[in-house]
Amino acid sequence: xxxxxxxxxxxxxxxxxxxxxxxxxxxxxxxxxxxxxxxxxxxxxxxxxxxxxxxxxxxxxxxxxxxxxxxxxxxxxxxxxxxxxxxxxxxxxxxxxxxx
Length: 100
Known about the structure:
Elements: E1 21-26, E2 30-35, E3 40-45, E4 47-52, E5 58-62, E6 66-68, E7 73-79, E8 83-89
Antiparallel strand pairs: 1-8, 2-7, 3-6, 3-8, 4-5, 4-7
């Protein structure tokens, strides 16, 4: 008698991981996306304001800073400078050797 239980076959194939996306926003331009927990927004230039469904706080993120998405939901990002460039990272960044 085999004590192991058979694993059910998955009913749908796994999706490949989403690629990171570079975005350029003009002044007061808005980006709306549904993002998963663990994603992050890295601002490369300019300054953005962002808010997320289910989070009572709003955030201002400057160039060189990153904002981590803590819960799945809709995220609204708006440029508050003449132009902002940012990168949507769909998965948590990998840890680098020598950094916690």
